[in-house]
Design a protein that fits this description.
By secondary structure, the chain is mostly helical. The chain has 2 domains: 2-66; 78-260, Tetracycline Repressor, domain 2, CATH 1.10.357.10. Helices cover 76% and strands 0% of the residues.
């Protein structure tokens, strides 16, 4: 029985070896056939030549040149356009300044205008804000350069009168005051801009008055706040009278009377 079992095991092992060799042979034959088919297909493909590849690269470069680049410079200076619009609004007001006039003066297209500034109302608000900022900067500089607070106030008031002497220039008045007359309370945003500018100017006047009070050249019998409000009213009145073309002598008398209140 033992010899028979050993013979059966030997036969089984031999059978498995033969079967394994046949499988490997079949796999090799299949792989060889696939390689032959792949080579046949590959040889039918027409690959681009080096010349064609260079031509395609050149075409891509040309196309990239034609494509719009990010960050391309604008055809106009937004700051200059804003400055131009500010002077037009300052001279003519909001209603009397047509948008086309602004576009022509600023040399800007309508599409560029809407993209940069939104609409006429928004542009006007930016111009008014720009004007107020510039005026505040000038006033701050004048206050820093003045020896006393009273010197600053005198220079400012007489500076208003001096604008009348420039006969070769059209007097445009104060952009902010002109806007108050034109808009009144019809627009909330404009009212807020004006109120903010008035508050800033009032604070500068208070600073000048307090400086003069400390130096003994402005009375301290009244608060800096009440004197600043009085000066604000006087300045608005002087500007209105200048616009009405009142004689210079009358304007100078008003300035002298206003300054007397500081004694």
């Amino acid at each position: 029985m033992m010899m028979q079992s050993n013979n059966q095991m030997a036969i089984t092992t031999s059978y498995r070896q033969i079967k394994s060799k046949k499988s490997i042979a079949r796999f090799s034959a299949t792989l060889s056939q696939l390689n032959t088919q792949f080579l046949a297909i590959f040889n039918t493909i027409e690959l681009p030549s080096l010349k064609d590849m260079n031509t395609n690269a050149l075409l891509i470069q040309k196309q990239q040149v034609k494509m719009p680049k990010k960050g391309r410079p604008l055809g106009y200076d937004p700051d200059e356009a804003l400055e131009t619009a500010m002077h037009l609004f300052w001279a003519g007001g909001y209603d009397a300044t047509p948008l086309d006039e602004i576009l022509n003066a600023a040399n800007i297209s309508k599409s560029s205008f809407y993209h940069m500034f939104g609409n006429k109302q928004q542009l006007f608000e930016r111009c008014l804000d720009r004007y107020c900022d510039k005026q505040i900067i000038l006033i701050e500089e004048g206050l820093r350069q003045s020896l006393t607070g009273r010197d600053f106030i005198e220079a400012f008031l007489y500076g208003l009168v001096d604008t009348v002497r420039h006969k070769n220039k059209r007097y445009k008045g104060c952009f902010m005051t002109n806007t108050v007359y034109e808009f009144a309370d019809r627009d909330v945003n404009v009212s807020k801009l004006i109120s903010s500018a008035i508050d800033r100017f009032n604070l500068l006047l208070q600073t000048a008055i307090e400086k003069g009070q400390e130096q003994g050249v402005i009375t301290d019998s009244k608060s800096s706040g009440s004197l600043a409000s009085f000066l604000m009213s006087s300045i608005a009145g002087i500007r209105t009278m200048i616009y009405a073309e009142v004689e210079i002598d009358q304007l100078e008398e008003i300035v002298e009377t206003t300054l007397a209140a500081l004694d």
